[in-house]
Amino acid sequence: MFGALSFTSPLILTALAALPVIWLLLRATPPAPKQERFPAFIILRQLKTSEETPDRTPWWLLLMRLVLTALIILGLSGPVLNAPAPSERNGPIVLIVDDTWPASQQWSLRRDVMRATAAEAGQSGRQIFLAPTAPQTSPPEIEPMTGEALREAEATIAPKAFTADREGALQTIKNLDRYFSESTSPEIRWLSDGVATEGDADFANALAAIGDLVVYVDATAPKYILRRSDDTNSTLKFNVNRLKPGLESEIELIAIARDGRELGRASSTLAADDVEIETIIDIPLALINDLASVRIANVSSAGTLYLADARDRRSLIGLVAQPESRANNLLSGNHYIRQALDQHAAFLEGGIRELVESDASVIILDDVGRLRANEEEALISWIERGGVLIRFAGPVLAEAAQDRTPQLTPVELRGGGRAFGGALTWDTPQRLDAFVPDSPFAGLDAPSDVLVRRQVLAEPGGETTLRTWARLEDGTPLVTGERQGAGAVALFHVTATPEWSDLPISGLFVEMLKRLTFLSSLGPDSIEEGANRLYAPYRLLDGEGRLVRPDETAKALTEAELAMLPTPVREPGFYGAPDSPLALNAVGPQTEFKPLSLPGKTILPYEATPPLSLTPPIILAALLLLVVDGVLALVMSGKLSLRPIAAVVIFSAISTIMFMPYAASAQPLDPDVDPVAIDAALSTRLAYVITDDPAIDQLSEQGIAALSRELVRRTAIEPAPPAAINLDTDDLSVYSFLYWPIAPGAEPPSDEALVNIENFMRFGGLLLIDTRDDERSVGAGTTPEGEALQRILSELNIPPLTPLDHDHVLARSFYLLDTLPGRMNNNPVWVEADSTGSNDGVTALIIGGRDWAGAWATDNFGRPARPMGAGGPRAREMAYRAGVNIVMVAYTGNYKSDQVHTPILLERLGQ
């Protein structure tokens, strides 16, 4: 050992003693032979009678050959840099490795220690026993291995998505007694993950009783864990925990959608003395429902990844608006429903027809008796498409059941209701019975302090028994439900207020409503199968936080099993359908995350510099010297001239010098591509021009985003979120559609922006200019937006325009329309008068004032952002169709126009 340098085969170094002998052998070189002509007189004349002696090898060549020989000897001796110090012990080594998700955050440090142990065992010939601590379904028997076998095992062992099962590892180690004896007691090296588990002290004491124990821990590297906390209506809250205080750290969370795109980021600073911080990711409702996972940036671990599933989606719940007489919060069932689901859903109030036409996935009717015929038909159609209808009883529903059972109830009802505990009754208030296994509420605990004082009774019979999801102790139904098409109907036989029962003021009420709203995500199959439904593994989580495909050993789990901590038979990951999976995370609220503390034990930090073998570079240097020696030998023997070698060296040097300036000067001619342009080129995006008015820009963004969603729903075009365009700086060549709202008083763009727009239209882009003044532009009068448009067009090189007619391809590209309606339809829409000369016969410019973005725009809850003019929802639908036609022309050209004119073309061809 020389400092940090050691040799795996030091005896080979004795060959260096032969260098003087080699020097003596190499120093003499016979003269080079000469070629002579054979004529006799010439030979006789050149005969010499003096004695010749052999020439000597030049000293510098002799020195190079000695260095070459020394390098070969050093390379064969196996030099190692930073090799571990040889242990004074000669017994076996037991290597305990915490191959868990906390260890994955600095897994390379464990691999370095395993490599060092393998090198040490290779030098001393000691046996090694490798014992991982991550739980396994069937732990294999541990066999002794050599240092080379440990090197191979080190390359295959990887962290698992579990916490350590050190008690199980201890039992395995105790089974190694047959390999140990008093004279060969083992040396135990525990490569810990630094996280405490139950019984660590007992585990360490038991190991110390078997042999000499050394525990490796992370000295400075931080460890993190990510947990979900309560969220509000529009935010996601997460708690980031650090194992122990350290330096001030910047924590960044990244939210990822199911299709892999990034939904949002949030950063926070963890102070040096803090170990926990709360971080909020503020994203809209629609994006929350696309959420697949949230991770800590730049940390690879299953413990720093949160898997979001269908239960994390925030349902849009429709509530029927109640009259002012019931507006008092404490008397309103809607108040208790909101209080129960406020953390898990967004709400929309309105009439039944409005709720059905909205994007609500759940509609709750609080004490609604009779339904009108058109409302019933609309609700039935909505339920069969996948909606969940939840009804609550009350005096109105009980009165309606006097004549006949109201529409859309799961079971037949008795009129009038049933009271408990009154002066004229003989029954006492009833408690809840346990939930049956095939109920959506299976697994919930029925609290004993929830009493029911009044209810609406169901007609007894087989159907009532089958459709009862919750019942009272006397067997009467509390909640009934049934599947209808792709949706479901559920009825609480009590009110949503505490008037009839204590259920609305209990925690059970929250869980029951969560289960029912969750049916809209899981689908109707979960209603029939209940708690016994199995969810097949879809993607499983490894220790480094990667989602991988399950193998044949992965098992399907029930919802109750997915709520437990992960084990080898319950691997963390996604289960169920890809569009609405359930998630089992590697960590949960009850997962302990505290630093490992073992007072009195030998603690060592992981080494940051692993052993490095110097044999390859030394052997490579020796081979290069051998090639040089061969070339010099050929030169000195006269078989190779120095001139070609010198010419090659000089030519290479001159070429390098000549081409270096050209390579440097070529760099500015190949600038970096704008990342925004790259993203737009790789994904389809509709774009809009930003103005100096934030309100207009927000409406444009909402409108184009809503149109993009409609395109995904109706056509084969699947646009990404819209792009905001700055005409002066952004590259328009990667876009096909550009919406330009004209603000009052807008000035003409700069010359660079005008050239950008003209090139956009010239090379295939479609520009939609919207003055949004259709309702204010009457007769010959002009509006501020119209005046601004005139100033812009006076600077822009555009072709002649003509009013749009119903035969234009814009009216036939997808839907058959007479015009392109928006929020208003008073004045004509202008397009190119003659577009046959460019852009494949497709207009590059559309000008109107119909406020198309205002007609398309919706807020974060899917509600229209601006009211329509005459026509209501039907007019908005026509505006969406106009937008679809415009975008289809922008992306597909005149293919539909060719189809429209096919009969005329065939007639001209005589067919």
TrEMBL record:
Residue stretches making up the Aerotolerance regulator N-terminal domain: 5-79
Transmembrane segments: 6-26, 59-81, 618-638, 645-664
UniProt-recorded name of the protein: DUF4159 domain-containing protein
SUPFAM superfamilies given in the database record: Class I glutamine amidotransferase-like
Entry annotated with the keyword Cell division: no
Domain DUF4159 per the UniProt entry, residue ranges: 685-890
Keyword tags: Membrane, Transmembrane, Transmembrane helix
Keyword Transmembrane among UniProt keywords: yes
